[in-house]
Amino acid sequence: MSGYQINEIFYSLQGEGVRAGTPALFLRFSGCNLQCSQETHGFDCDTEFVSGRRLSAEEIGEELRECSPACRWIICTGGEPLLQLDTDLALFLKEQGYLLAVETNGSVEPAPPLLELLDWITCSPKVAEHAVRLSRCDELKYVRSYGQGLPKPKLTRMEHKLISPAFAGGHLDRRTLEWCIELVKENPGWRLSLQQHKIWNIR
Ligand code: SF4
């Protein structure tokens, strides 16, 4: 089937990571290869990525332009965007003058031509380190709940290393925050990253 299954397209601010606070067009792909839950990962996935519409590259470009004719950054997210984002779509969007950021769980390896087209990669592993398929990223981010330690990353090529306290039911409890602050203090070189969009109450 041609086209891409897209969950939503919207314009907002990046809420987390080192690019937090910057405006971006969000392109959320439907579908994920994982099902993170309290039992398996220490937190429940709170993203609705199941529903979606089938859109062509041209239709995606049109909706992005309607959301903001000025913004140049697109954040490809999901679900797991690398299940669908391919070189054809990336090339099409780059030709329109966009910069491409991707938020991935690290379990899908982008083909080499696609990897070279990505301007910013955020990898937030939700699989065991041996199952991480990416070779590099710009920021590596671990979501941690109270009591969860910091793994030794398989990825060695990354610019920024972040620890993100898990929210539960849309809230960040003090115990989890304090746990993550201690993790950062025990591991110099890492930094705290909050899901600030949840505090700002924006998407
Ligand atoms: S990898 Fe991300 S989007 Fe997929 S289930 Fe886990 S938290 Fe949700």
Short description:
The chain is of the alpha/beta class and 203 residues long. It contains 6 helices and 9 strands.
Order of helices and strands: EEHEHEHEHEEEHEH
**How helix-rich are the residues, as a percent range?**
10-25%
Mean pLDDT: 96
Alpha-beta content class: alpha/beta
Gyration radius from CA atoms, angstroms: 17 Å
Number of helices: 6
Assembly type of the chains comes to single chain
Strand order of the largest sheet: 3-1-2-4-5-6-7-8-9
Give the overall form: globular
- Report the bound ligands by name, code or SMILES: iron/sulfur cluster
Secondary-structure blueprint of this entry?
Layout: E1 4-13, E2 23-29, H1 38-41, E3 53-55, H2 57-67, E4 73-77, H3 87-95, E5 99-104, H4 112-117, E6 120-123, E7 139-144, E8 160-165, H5 174-186, E9 191-192, H6 196-200
Parallel strand pairs: 2-4, 4-5, 5-6, 6-7, 7-8, 8-9
Antiparallel strand pairs: 1-2, 1-3
Give an overview of the whole structure:
The protein has 203 residues and is α/β, with parallel strands linked by helices. It has a single domain (4-200), classed as Alpha-Beta Barrel (TIM Barrel). Helices cover 24% and strands 24% of the residues. The chain contains six helices and nine strands; from the N terminus they run ββαβαβαβαβββαβα. It has helices at 38-41, 57-67, 87-95, 112-117, 174-186, 196-200, and strands spanning 4-13, 23-29, 53-55, 73-77, 99-104, 120-123, 139-144, 160-165, 191-192. A nine-stranded mixed β-sheet has the order 3-1-2-4-5-6-7-8-9. Helix 4 links the parallel strand 5 and strand 6. The longest helix is centred in the last third of the chain and has 13 residues, at 174-186. It starts with a strand and ends with a helix. The mean pLDDT is 96. Bound molecules: iron/sulfur cluster.
